[in-house]
Specification:
Elements: H1 2-10, H2 14-40, H3 48-71, H4 82-104, H5 110-132
Length: about 130
């Protein structure tokens, strides 16, 4: 545990970590606001509000992740490939849309809500591994 704390304390640019946290807060607020609009909208197969929420969520989680990755200073050269990085944002947005669609149709069913969470977690993990790997 102390190694993790030491790594965070000594190998990160705290200004960029703060920017990443700000992106997270703005992304969460925007996503929740858009999801509330999607819930109020008439029941269509795919609401424009839902698409906007997925786009905002996917882009914000992607950007906060890469800003945080830029904040990490491992002491060695690091580079990102254009194609994997571009694919990673697509994974985040598409996964968020699928998860939000499942969640909208969950009707308070705990299994469906859990399925939506699992899809969202898988999308975020896939975004991370596609962009960093």
């Amino acid at each position: 545990m102390l190694k993790i704390v030491a790594c965070v304390a000594s190998q990160h640019d705290f200004g960029l970590v703060a920017v990443s946290a700000g992106i997270c807060l703005l992304g969460c607020f925007s996503t929740v606001t858009l999801m509330a609009e999607a819930a109020r909208a008439e029941r269509r197969s795919v609401s424009p509000w839902l698409i906007a929420a997925a786009f905002v969520f996917g882009c914000s989680v992607w950007s906060l992740h890469f800003v945080a990755m830029l904040a990490f200073q491992p002491g060695a050269q690091a580079a990102y490939g254009l194609l994997p990085t571009a694919a990673s944002i697509g994974i985040a947005v598409a996964g968020a849309l699928i998860a939000f669609l499942i969640w909208c149709r969950a009707d308070h069913d705990p299994l469906k809500v859990a399925a939506a969470g699992l899809v969202l977690a898988t999308a975020i993990s896939g975004m991370h591994y596609a962009g960093v790997g």
